[in-house]
Specification:
This protein is elongated. It is mainly α. Helices cover 67% and strands 5% of the residues. It has one domain.
Length: 204
């Protein structure tokens, strides 16, 4: 999640969508060839400003979630320490020799204190997982938005050149430089800007 590379991986699906958008539904135009092309999606995202906006939004949302988590966990951690002290006090009140007996069982009040400690630990963990899930959900939303936004541009560039398949440059082993449509896609997207990624949700 450090950059838009994972978004690009999702966008690969959008790039390949030109197979359906201009391959299966439309035949190659006269005088053209039904060929495959490649595109450097990292470069595309960087040059049209999507990567910078992605970084701005995801880092900002992560900071908000961190602050929210700290505001939740600080009082929970204080409660946990209080419960741990109560449990320690109850156990310390029991003679060590008694606690070392093979058949020794903690008294009910000690068991209850222990359960409260475990429950508080689980609550702290659950709060962290809940906020991490929010971050992942927003990350997916941005990927899906980028995928949807870039698909018409990819299809248009494919159609204009009679290209039936466009694949990400990162997954190709070899390609002729003439098959690289990165510049063409960048030019199209600069002339037809896509919607920026959705801003972070106001759900904290």
């Amino acid at each position: 999640m450090n950059d838009l590379r994972r978004v690009m991986a999702m966008a690969s699906l959008a790039a390949l969508a030109c197979i359906a958008g201009c391959g299966e539904q439309q035949a190659a135009k006269p005088g053209t060839h039904a060929i495959a092309a490649v595109v450097d999606l990292d470069r595309v995202a960087a040059e049209i400003g999507v990567n910078a906006k992605y970084q701005e939004y995801i880092n900002g949302y992560r900071s908000q979630l961190k602050e929210k988590l700290e505001s939740i966990q600080v009082p929970l951690q204080q409660d946990l320490e209080r419960l741990q002290n109560e449990l320690r006090t109850k156990l310390d009140a029991i003679p060590e020799a008694e606690r070392k007996k093979p058949d020794w069982k903690a008294p009910a009040e000690a068991e209850s204190a222990y359960k409260k400690v475990v429950e508080k630990q689980q609550q702290i963990q659950a709060e962290g997982q809940n906020l991490e899930a929010k971050l992942q959900s927003y990350d997916r939303a941005m990927k899906e938005a980028f995928q949807a936004a870039i698909q018409p541009a990819v299809a248009a560039v494919c159609e204009a050149r009679g290209v039936r398949v466009m694949v990400p440059r990162a997954v190709t082993v070899y390609f002729d430089p003439d098959a690289d449509l990165t510049a063409a896609l960048i030019g199209y997207l600069k002339a037809h800007p896509i919607q920026p990624p959705p801003p972070p949700p106001n759900d904290l």
